[in-house]
Inverse folding.
């Protein structure tokens, strides 16, 4: 059973939303979720449920609501992680953190801030964006009417704003001031006295060449602080204003991150399951002789970061070398499979096993996407991707993408993740839509896919339960004749893809690379085992 409070209050079982009854029972569940895994005294519940005047039968009403909630929780009997206990001096709602969107949000924010502290602002921006995507509006928006003044709700809004500021900070650190400018303006308009937001908007305006707008932000917040509170802006904000007036060099756009393979040219070879020839699809318009196609090495540098890029072999041309790939960005319709691999870092964790498992997961994704006519995107662990429709778009690209997601999930779950459920967690999403394909030198001809469709994919990843394949509405409409879906939840959560429909398994002709005889699981990919963990 899963619970959602970052928006309207919702509870669901197996992807289906569960009715929660009257306002007393809903408020009781909401407050217990805000204090999940902690005992809440009965007198505290009386205060929060009836802030003005407590009726005589209030304790009986709480008892009835508790019995009703226990019956609701019984619908998730196959999943015994949620339980409402009677513990003196009140009640405790015991849940797993992964089943409540608030705790998922906090975990993602903590991870994003750790990535930012480590200097990995690209990963931090991605993680924080996913965390913010869990919000569907004001927390408990359907319950937070005039007489519901819970301090916990104010605290949640402060947490959201703090994460939003950290996301903007990461975006500014990697030169995405144009992309975040609109969101920054909206955030400042909603909270005009929040100085950090105003400072970030000033920096974004300045880097966009709008110095006068940046200074106008400072004048506006200074005027409001002086008029309302008799206060001057903080020292940091005043210093930022002087830097803008002086065109200080530290306000310039930061340099783009250096590609990882440039940072660590010497790499130690790590044995993996993937050491095979990656063959371009035979129907691709720019297919070349197999001699120009490289191996797919999986390597690890001294900083333990992996590099699984497809690196074309150099082509000799006189005294120079070149790689044969496109360089012109273009817009096209694609389907994208996104795979997010999460794992715990306990003291006794086998880091070598995690490294091996990550390489195995990419190997399976590469094999399955190749069989279905897709292309594995640049690796930015812990998120892997496969793109369908790059070179030769097909009408069934979305179906091929969902089939690849099924194959990956079933292959991994059936071999290792069930053996170590607390170690690795796999989340899979499939999205379809227009995207921009950019060909960056560091990615050796493998396009980087960006756009609204990919952004939707990351939001789906953040909400996808472990082991499920979630798809967007566009993907569902394009594949519903081949793929069976649960009726709920609908977007923004995405649809849960259940199985390939009977009779549809042969409707899509697979695009396969040459395979040597051997294991039925695929070329060079023996069945994954728990030993790698």
């Amino acid at each position: 059973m899963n619970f959602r409070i970052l928006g309207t209050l919702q509870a669901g079982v197996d992807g289906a939303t569960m009715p929660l009854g009257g306002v007393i029972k809903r408020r009781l569940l909401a407050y217990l979720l805000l204090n999940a895994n902690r005992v809440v005294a009965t007198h505290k519940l009386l205060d929060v449920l009836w802030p003005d005047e407590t009726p005589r039968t209030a304790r009986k009403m709480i008892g009835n609501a508790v019995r009703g909630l226990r019956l609701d929780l019984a619908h998730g009997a196959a999943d015994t992680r949620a339980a409402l206990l009677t513990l003196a001096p009140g009640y405790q709602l015991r849940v797993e953190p992964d089943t409540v969107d608030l705790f998922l949000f906090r975990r993602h924010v903590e991870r994003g801030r750790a990535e930012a502290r480590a200097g990995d602002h690209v990963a931090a921006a991605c993680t924080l964006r996913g965390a913010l995507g869990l919000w569907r509006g004001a927390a408990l928006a359907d319950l937070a009417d005039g007489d519901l003044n819970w301090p916990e709700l104010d605290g949640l809004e402060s947490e959201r704003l703090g994460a939003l500021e950290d996301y903007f900070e990461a975006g500014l650190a990697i030169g995405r001031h144009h992309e975040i400018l609109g969101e920054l303006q909206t955030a400042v308009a909603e909270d005009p006295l929040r100085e950090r937001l105003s400072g970030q908007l000033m920096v974004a305006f300045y880097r966009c060449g709008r110095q006068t707008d940046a200074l106008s932000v400072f004048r506006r917040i200074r005027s409001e602080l002086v008029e309302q509170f008799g206060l001057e802006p903080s020292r940091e904000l005043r210093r930022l204003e002087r830097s803008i007036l002086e065109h200080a060099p530290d306000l310039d756009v930061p340099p783009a991150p250096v590609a990882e393979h440039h940072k660590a040219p010497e790499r130690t070879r790590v044995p993996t399951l993937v050491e095979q020839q990656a063959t371009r699809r035979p129907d691709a318009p720019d297919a070349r002789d197999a001699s120009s196609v490289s191996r797919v090495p999986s390597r690890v540098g001294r900083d333990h970061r992996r590099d699984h890029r497809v690196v074309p072999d150099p082509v000799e041309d006189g005294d120079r070398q070149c790689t044969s790939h496109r360089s012109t960005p273009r817009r096209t319709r694609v389907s994208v499979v996104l795979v997010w691999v999460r794992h715990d870092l306990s003291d006794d964790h086998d880091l070598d096993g995690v490294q091996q498992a990550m390489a195995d997961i990419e190997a399976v994704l590469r094999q399955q996407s190749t069989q279905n006519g897709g292309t594995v995107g640049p690796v930015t662990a812990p998120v892997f991707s496969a793109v369908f429709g790059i070179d030769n778009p097909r009408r069934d690209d979305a179906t091929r993408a969902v089939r690849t997601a099924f194959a990956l999930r079933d292959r991994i779950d059936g071999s290792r993740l069930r053996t170590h459920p607390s170690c690795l967690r796999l989340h899979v999403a499939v999205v379809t839509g227009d995207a921009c394909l950019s060909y960056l030198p560091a990615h050796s001809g493998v396009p980087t896919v960006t756009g609204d469709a990919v952004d939707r994919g990351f939001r789906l990843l953040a909400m996808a339960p472990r082991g499920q394949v979630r798809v967007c509405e566009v993907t569902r409409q394009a594949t519903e004749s081949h793929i069976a879906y649960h009726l709920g939840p609908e977007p923004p959560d995405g649809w849960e893809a259940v199985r390939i429909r009977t009779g549809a398994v042969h409707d899509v002709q697979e695009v396969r690379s040459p395979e040597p005889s051997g294991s039925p699981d695929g070329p060079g990919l023996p069945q994954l085992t728990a030993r790698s963990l």
About this structure: Confidence is low (pLDDT under 50) at residues 258-326, 416-421, 508-533. The radius of gyration is 26 Å. Residues 94 and 110 are 22 Å apart (CA to CA).
